[in-house]
UniProtKB/TrEMBL annotation, chain A:
Xref: InterPro entries: Hydrogenase_assoc-protein (IPR051349), NADH_UbQ_OxRdtase-like_20kDa (IPR006137), NiFe_Hase_small_N_sf (IPR037024)
Record's protein name: Oxidoreductase
Key words of the record: 3Fe-4S, Iron, Iron-sulfur, Metal-binding, Oxidoreductase
Gene Ontology terms for molecular function: 3 iron, 4 sulfur cluster binding; oxidoreductase activity
From TrEMBL, chain B:
PANTHER family reported in the protein's UniProt record: ANAEROBIC SULFITE REDUCTASE SUBUNIT A
Extent of the signal sequence: none
Membrane-crossing residue ranges in chain numbering: none
Record-given protein name: Sulfite reductase subunit A
Location of the 4Fe-4S ferredoxin-type domain: 256-288, 337-365
GO molecular function annotation: iron-sulfur cluster binding; metal ion binding
Species per Swiss-Prot/TrEMBL record: Thiorhodococcus minor
Keyword Iron-sulfur in annotation: yes
Source organism phylogeny: Bacteria, Pseudomonadati, Pseudomonadota, Gammaproteobacteria, Chromatiales
Keywords, sorted A to Z: Iron, Iron-sulfur, Metal-binding
Keyword Nuclease: no
Length: 257, 381
């Protein structure tokens, strides 16, 4: 019996497309991906659409409208494995900042014709709506982690995607700690690894793009950041970046209200 | 050739040339983004000159010495930085083997180790002690880590005695420094004052002696040897921290001490302390496959007992609470390591204090437990 290539679909919800583009950015590996799976639905790459069901669905974006809340259920129903990719899909994304204020106020402040806007009061991760088989974090995701998740899924093994701190990535690559050696603020100790150590290697502290680490002690880090000179407001803004709605960061930002 | 020689600062270049001529790749201190790190040296001028370090809990700064002071010419006047020689002998990431699917199964290809013969220039006494401790772990037990053993056997060690203590050093109380007694091929002591700058060279091995045949030197005078001895004593006296001598027993008898929860409030479980520690040896092993499932590979990378995965067994991690993880790390370093390897796992280098982002201090934690261990049993407070 000729084995059928698994069907892959890529879905977009409220997001910037950056995570889907990570798949296209797999330039050298793209042919191997196309060999290993049938790319059945991926509007960013091709207008061809193959009907479901799909073996693997990659879902980018958060749920911010009633239509999206409906559509994610249909995607789930057609997908054997549903993998969310990126900060929007896994935490609600930067747009989850809207969760902090009444929707009407925001809509009136931003749009000339608020009556055209049909939005939910919150931006939420996909996991709040449907069952998710694997969450891949990052803003954007790391293409090597995406390849690892695909390869693990296709070969029936667990992906090697660490849930430990960004600090471990610094130490593995020999990056000198910017917080200790320069007194710069860094969210690395409470942030999950995955970016390949981007900011500390550019002499900047981590912005928390990969969301909270497995056991984030934000209180201890906040105390340190204060000692390094951050005030309440700066601290609050620091936790309110791309993964602001992840519970550990949301709670940390609320304590600095 | 006598056992203690004197070389000029210019002869450091001769020393490097001799090492290169003998086929070694010299590695030593270099300045990178505000810290002293260990990297390949191509010339003696790569060595940072006139830098002094300032270290404390969660704090590290390098500064240029005042140009009018003799320090401005100093080469080894800073203490250890964030990295250690562990990175060369036990690399942070390593490929162990690769395999390809064949008609009948898998064909395995072990990785070949292409690491050069390193010459470690500037290994401090606490770092020699750390190498001896890792020797016990990796090559003196029943299972030898072949890669480590080969890299270690090939390495040439030029040690440097410490003549100025770093702010978090406590090697004197661990008996590992600031003077190196053995474990080197050559050992330098920097002699530095207003009108003289030179290095004493102690010979520690036959290969060290052979190397010095190639380097311009003369016999050191008793006065010069005495100056070196005094400079090292100064470093010992500068140390502001010490480890209580009975740390092993204190930790062994206090597994339920309330201090564990207190330190867990401050600890980020970020793992920096374990990864900068020159003796921590834990690793995780990961298997990967190619997308088509034709190739597989196994890698090893540093791990830490501060990650949840580390204690994961069927059903979940054993050490869920940060208190349990911190207790595990400090108890392993200072107490259970003795039973396991016949030595402490701590050399007193101070890295875990300096590079802990929140400045948790291993000596202070032991002292705090010691100060209160005779308190009433838990529950009666
Ligand atoms: S730079 Fe940031 S992420 Fe890196 S070790 Fe320091 S605190 Fe951790
Ligand atoms: S003791 Fe410091 S370096 Fe170690 S895990 Fe805790 S916070 Fe990180
Ligand atoms: S436990 Fe700390 S002081 Fe002791 S050897 Fe390790 S890093 Fe150095
Ligand atoms: S302290 Fe932790 S990381 Fe270090 S050797 Fe012991 S178990 Fe391993």
């Amino acid at each position: 019996m000729a084995s059928r290539r698994p069907k892959l679909a890529v879905w977009k919800f409220s997001s910037c497309d950056g995570c889907q583009l990570s798949l296209l950015a797999c330039e050298d590996e793209l042919l191997a991906i196309a060999d290993a799976v049938e790319i059945a639905y991926f509007l960013e790459a091709s207008r061809a659409e193959v009907a479901g069901p799909y073996d693997i669905s990659l879902v980018e974006g958060s749920i911010t409208t009633p239509q999206e809340a409906e559509r994610i259920r249909r995607v789930r129903a057609q997908s054997r494995m549903l993998i969310t990719i990126g900060a929007c899909a896994t935490t609600g994304g930067i747009q989850a900042l809207k969760n902090l204020r009444p929707l009407d106020d925001l809509v009136r402040a931003v749009y000339a014709h608020p009556e055209y806007i049909d939005s939910l009061a919150t931006s939420t991760p996909v996991l709040d709506h449907v069952r998710v088989d694997f969450e891949l974090h990052g803003c954007p995701i790391n293409k090597y982690q995406l390849l690892e998740v695909l390869s693990a899924t296709l070969n029936g093994r667990r992906p090697n995607v660490p849930t430990y701190s960004q600090c471990i990535e610094c130490k593995l690559s020999g990056t000198v700690c910017v917080m200790v050696s320069q007194g710069k603020a860094c969210l690395g100790p409470v942030t999950q690894a995955g970016c390949g150590n981007l900011c500390p290697t550019c002499d900047r502290g981590c912005f928390g793009c990969f969301g909270p680490v497995e056991t984030a002690n934000t209180q201890a880090l906040s105390a340190r950041l204060k000692a390094l000179g951050m005030d309440q407001r700066e601290l609050q803004h620091y936790y309110r970046l791309f993964t602001n709605n992840a519970p550990a960061f949301r709670e940390a930002s609320e304590t600095h209200d | 050739m006598p056992d203690t020689l004197l070389i000029s600062t210019e002869a450091l270049q001769g020393l490097l040339d001799a090492l290169i001529a003998k086929g070694y790749q010299p590695v030593g201190p270099r300045l990178e983004r505000g810290a002293i790190v260990y990297e390949t040296l191509s010339a003696a001028s790569d060595l940072p000159r006139g830098y002094l370090d300032e270290q404390g809990g969660g704090h590290y700064r390098l500064s240029k010495a005042d140009p009018s002071s003799p320090e401005t010419a100093g080469i080894f006047r800073y203490a250890v930085g964030p990295q250690s020689w562990k990175g060369f002998l036990f690399p942070s990431r390593q490929s162990l083997w690769r395999a390809r699917r064949t008609e009948t199964g898998f064909a395995f290809e072990p990785e070949t180790d292409d690491a050069p013969a390193y010459a470690f220039l500037g290994a401090r006494p606490c770092e020699l002690a750390a190498m001896r401790i890792q020797d016990r772990v990796f090559q003196e037990g029943p299972y030898v880590d072949r890669g480590y053993a080969e890299r270690r056997a090939r390495a040439f060690v030029v040690a440097v005695n410490c003549t100025r203590a770093g702010g978090t050093c406590f090697c004197a109380s661990m008996g590992t420094g600031p003077r190196a007694e053995d474990g080197f091929d050559l050992c330098l002591t920097e002699l530095l004052d207003a009108d003289d700058h030179a290095f004493l060279v102690e010979i520690g091995s036959a290969s060290g002696r052979a190397l010095m045949e190639l380097v311009r030197h003369r016999t050191a005078t008793p006065e010069e040897i005495e100056r070196g001895r005094r400079a090292i004593t100064d470093a010992a006296e500068q140390m502001g921290r010490r480890m209580p001598p009975d740390a092993a027993a204190i930790l062994a008898s206090n597994p339920e001490h309330p201090r564990w929860d207190q330190v867990a409030q401050r600890c980020l479980s970020c793992a920096n302390c374990t990864l900068v520690c020159p003796t921590c040896f834990c690793s995780r092993v990961e298997d990967t496959t190619s997308l088509d499932g034709v190739e597989a590979a196994r890698h090893r990378q540093w791990d830490s007992c501060f990650t949840l995965d580390f204690s994961y067994i069927h059903g979940g991690p054993v050490r869920r609470e940060t208190a349990a993880r911190y207790r595990h790390w400090i108890t392993h370093k200072l107490s259970t390591w003795h039973a396991q390897f016949g030595t402490s796992g701590c050399t007193g280098c101070g890295r875990c204090i300096t590079w802990c982002p929140v400045g948790i201090d291993i000596t202070e934690e032991v002292a705090a437990i010691q100060a209160t261990e005779r308190a009433e049993p838990l529950g009666d407070e």
